[in-house]
Amino acid sequence: MKLSLSWLFEFLETDATATEISDKLTNIGLEVEEIIDNTRLSSFVVAQINEVLDHPNADRLKVCKVSNGKEILQIVCGADNVKVGMKTVLAQVGSILPISNITIASTKIRDVASNGMLCSEDELGLSSKKNAGIIELSDDYQIGESFFPCNIVIDINVTPNRGDCLSVYGIARDLAATGIGKLKAIGVNNKILHSMSSPITLQTTDKESFISGRYIGNVKNIESPKWLKDRLKSIGLRSISAVVDITNYIMISFGKPLHAYDADKINGKLVVQKANEQRAFVGLDGKNYLLADGTNIIADDKNIHGIAGIIGAQCSQCLLDTKNIFLESAWFDPISIATTSRSIGLSTEASYRFERFVDPEFVINGLNIATEMILSICGGIASDVVSAGEYVEHKNTINFDYREVSKLGSIDISQEEIFDILTGLGFIVNKNDHWSVNTPSWRSDIKLPIDLIEEVVRIYGYEKIKEEELHIRDVQTPGTLQDKLRVLMSSRGLNEVLTWSFMDEKIAEKFGYFNKQFLIANPLNNNLNIMRPTIIPNLLQIAESNIARGIFDLAIFEIGPVYNDDLVLDQQKFVLSGLRSGHNLPRNLYKTNRKIDTFDVKVDFMSVLHFLNIDDSSISISECNMPYYHPGKSSTIYFNNIILGYFGELHPSIKNSYEFKQDIMCFEIMLNSVDKLPIHSKKYIDYQYQSAKRDFAFLVDKNVAIGSIINPIKNSNLNIVTEVLVFDVYDKIDDYPNKKSVALSVTFHSPDHTLIEDEIKKASEIITDAVYKSTGGELRSV
């Protein structure tokens, strides 16, 4: 947002310098990116062409005698529109062109001396049109005066939430609230005399828009007066015609985009409506646009006259010969404008403001101020105001405890100072023990008490916040269960990832989950249209991407929410999900690596339970019935009857759908369930007597889960069994093709005596009998 100091002083009474104003703007959150001193452009002056001769050595060039008010200069010019008596802009020797940074020097062009340059609008940055000829100025310009107003321009970076500061008046209001100056009142005549009804009426089918307008007949759309041209020129806008310049002046001054139509080109009624099919449109910029079905347009029964809030149509633009105009002022929904602007690839000064919220209460005021200016400069007869749509209320009432400003803002500020700052910014404050604050119509971003605190602090001054010593603890330890588990997983060699909380509903269905209540109404795209029921597909997508890039050894995890049929209302369900694939170690000299298998993810799972000191005696393992796990190589872990999670190999059908060539192992731990488990502190047991170990190899059916072998042993009431470990599974037995051999190591220990062989033998028989009854497994060896 660029504004000249002279334009700012139109609304702010102040003695502050440009530097003081710039510093204050930055301090209150309106960052000044650049201060442009236009005095460097003082060498561009108004000149008059007194004589035009043909160039002796070039058919397309002219040799001109030009007066700059002090002397007559000879200048070679190639513009087609050069003529005697014409006033134009002269770049004198030593001038630096603002766009190309070329320095003008005395030179010879085809052997003829040239002492300066006559300028076109594009060379001065006032237009993007090339080869349009040199600038032709009106008679109210004085020969020898500087073409550019000798003014200072401030370029401000306005944040997206401050659409009200995309105007000179909005910036003046913020500055006045700081005490640097006094805000001047806007003179608005809401009782403009009208002697006719508007022949053009308005209608809107869009519920989120309000449009008003006024017909003004018999106007003389002349060139703008010099003061108005200078205002626009100071910030790099070129003058077009009085009517168009006035609409631009209102937009920059007050942040209210307006549009003027040639009323003679409109057929009776303008309607704000959605395009019901793809339609072609030629904008004021002369470019063709293909408008998608549903685009908000302004049209009569024959033509489209504008894309609502973005750009008008070439077919009804105001030209110098326009006699009757229809002046439109409207409010459009910011999201709708932003969507349309991106879909057609066009951002304009108007759309930029509408996207960031335009004051809905200034619709009529902006229309009336512009009407008065047009009647004053161009003459004409104004009609009554016509409107369509419903006015949208955007004010909020906030209950506010002013004492929180000092508490949260860490500033010493009085109640009166808080009141003055808020009222200076346009808030209406009703004083009680707890204030009631009404937000102004132009501040849609203020919704909460903390927003009001921020407003007070930024105007009062961030530099006045009291310094306090920062106390840092020496050791930062993980606090929550999730933080602790992140550290644990990282220590086990897994890398944390973070993925979307939503996915494609087709993938969710593939994994056995689909519930319409978790579909997203307005997804980012069609591939992210349902809340994720499990994190495993997201991990598989990462694995797929890594494997495609030649990274085959994977160990990743994520902790996050999932959304499925088990979800309890008003309670998020968090899961720790992990994936391993490839080899357990990189290739090295010292240790042979092996392929990752089910037991690796089981150890990951059990490490969490051991870390939390969960009592092993209440843990049981059984077959997993989740459809995305391998039915014979996966398990469900229970604590009593509570499911703690799953681990195992990915189901072959899922594996094939991703075209994985290597096995994928996964685990999922239900943190909501784990967090509720009773935790038993581990106590060190000082065994005084020697332990004994025995290995068992059971022959069982291939579909028997490992947990079905271990659980009976743990539940056999043998107090001397302290540990059961699986150390081998072999399923390639020639004599028993449908069987597998599971080898276990069982540790026996007594706290009060040394075990004798008979005790161990009896315990071994109980173990063998328990496994046989549970699985039909036969003892191969012991």
Automatic annotation (TrEMBL):
Gene Ontology cellular component terms for the protein in this record: phenylalanine-tRNA ligase complex
Subcellular location: Cytoplasm
CDD domains the record matches: PheRS_beta_core (cd00769), tRNA_bind_bactPheRS (cd02796)
Record-level Gene Ontology MF annotations: ATP binding; magnesium ion binding; phenylalanine-tRNA ligase activity; tRNA binding
Annotated cofactor note: Binds 2 magnesium ions per tetramer.
Chief location: cytoplasm
Top-level taxon of origin: Bacteria
Domain spans labelled TRNA-binding: 38-148
B5 domain mapped to chain residues: 393-467
Cofactor: Mg(2+)
SUPFAM superfamilies the UniProt entry points to: Anticodon-binding domain of PheRS, Class II aaRS and biotin synthetases, Nucleic acid-binding proteins, PheT/TilS domain, Putative DNA-binding domain
Class in the EC hierarchy, top level: ligase
Complexes and interactors: Tetramer of two alpha and two beta subunits.
Family assignment from sequence similarity: Belongs to the phenylalanyl-tRNA synthetase beta subunit family. Type 1 subfamily.
Protein name (database record): Phenylalanine--tRNA ligase beta subunit
Gene encoding the protein: pheT
